[in-house]
Structure formats: C-alpha cells, structure tokens
Amino acid sequence: MKNTHKSIAGIAKILFVILLLAGCLLPVHAGEKWVVTDNELTVWDSPDYLKKLGMVTRGYEIDAIAIEGDMIRFEYEGMTAYVATYCCRRVLEESVGQEQPVVEEGTAKQTRQALSAEKAVAATSAKVEQVADAETRGSTAVEKALNTKGTALIGIPLLVLGIVFFLFGLAGVVFTVCYAFCPKKLAAWFNERCGEDVIPAKRFNKLLLPPVYAGIGAIAANMLVFGVGGLLAGQLQETVMAWQESTQMIVCGVAVCIGVVVTQAVPFMILRHWYLKYREEHGKKAARWMTIYSIMCLVAIYLICLVIIYAVMAMLALLLILLILCVCFPARYYVVRRW
C-alpha cells in the first residue's frame, strides 16, 4: 500500500509539473480584444518591423493571439501580423474586472516607454539637425569666401579694362576738340611724331579713307554673318532641335565665335593693308602715327556728328516746349495809341 501511495503521489507531481509547463507555454493574452486608437496604423509581419503587410484605421478591432513585448500578435488576412500596443486600446470585459488595473498599468508602462523612445529619437534628430546646420553654415562661409575671392579676381581685369576705355575715351575727346578747333596744330604735332610732313592740315583728307573703308567692311561683314546665320538657322532648325542640349550649346558657341572673328577680322585686315602701304612709302614710325591719326579722325567725326545730332534734338525739344506754352498760355497784345 505504501508503495502504491508513493507511486500515485509521484504521478500526481509529474502531472502538476506538466500542467504548469503547459500553462506557461500557452499565450497569456489569447482571446483579448483591442481597438486601434490611431488614425492609421501600420501592420507588420514581425515585431522587428521587417515587412509591411497593410494599414488599419481607427476603430479596427483586433483579436489578440499573444502580447510579445510592446507588440500585439494577431491574424490579419490569413497571416500572422503585429501592431504596436501603444497605438491601441484594450477592450475590457466585466468578467475580467480584476485584471483591468494590471493591463492598464502595463499599457501605461508601454506608453511611457514609447514616449521615452520618441523623446530619445527627437533629441537625436535635434543633434543631427544642429550638426547639419553647423556644416551648412561652414559651407556657406566657404562659399562666401570663394565668391568674394572670385569677385575680386574678376574685378581686377574689369577695372583695368575700364581704365583703358576711360583713357581711350579721354584721348578721343581731346583729339576731337583739337580736330574741330585747331586742325593745323594737331597735324603739326603728328608730323613731328612721324618725322616728316605726311599729314595734311585739312580736316577732310585722304587719311580718312582707311577707317571709312574699315567701317564699310565691318557693316558688310555683319550683314553677311547675320544673313548667312539666319538662313542656316531656318534651314537647319529641325536638325538642330533633334540634337542634345549640350551639342546645341557647342554648335551655337562655335557659330557665335565664327561670326565675331569674321566681323572683327574684316576691318582689321583693311586697316592692316593701309598700314603696310604707308610703311612702304614713309617707314614704320610714320605709318604707325598715320594709322592712329586716321582712326582718331573717324572717331572725332563720329563724336562731332553725335554732338550735332543731340544739339538739334535739344533745339527741337525747346521749340516744341515753347509751342506748347504758346498754345496753352496765349499772350495778350495791346494797341498803343499815339497822341
């Protein structure tokens, strides 16, 4: 009998351990109902957020299979799915009223953990933004320095070019005044530089021919370039539009360079032809000063024509103003009787 009681007691202990293990293995929260509280909630295939299965909206009811950490495991469209517990609310039943504080306490704890995680993420994001702002400020400072340096490098050639044009304009104004009021003294000064009397004292002389021919050649070259360019552009428009943008830019740049070279080369070649002719007749020094005199004479005539045109326009404007005043405010005439 004692052996029988011992064997029964052993069997009972074994069954108790088996039942205890089975109870531990069974999901504790199986059968619980949860309701989604967020407007939209992502459904994942695992607690590690590996694959997105879909989205559920506020009010969606979930039949929990188990609670794994802060994730609810449930069945979604025939698949095992997971959602975050802090985005849901547990539906409490009257029969489990004693378990309510425990569940609410667990949910509050999970919510606090989620908020702490969000705060940590926000703090990390703030630090990253601060670092990015510092890098942006540093890059902006470097760009400003480079732009300032580049502006300075570009400004020096522009300043030199401006000084050259200013001196050339000043020389043109002085030459124009002398050409208009004292042409004999101007011719004598240039003849001294030439070493012989090769420049006549008259305002209009044969030395005006080279710059006039050069001007006519420049006009003809411009008309030719624009005419040929317009004709080719009209015929090859469809072909050019079919090319890539970079190819179009290269072709347009080459065409512009060719046009500039042609329009500038024609007057230069005409002046060079006359310079060589003067050099054969009077020498290199005289040819140089004769060419300068001929070019400056054309500049002087151009400036004189501009002054005359502006003077005529000013006089016409003054006459027009006087006419308007006479029409708007007519004068009164009085007859003086002789006694």
Automatic annotation (TrEMBL):
Source domain of life: Bacteria
The species this protein was found in: Palleniella muris
Protein name listed in UniProt: Uncharacterized protein
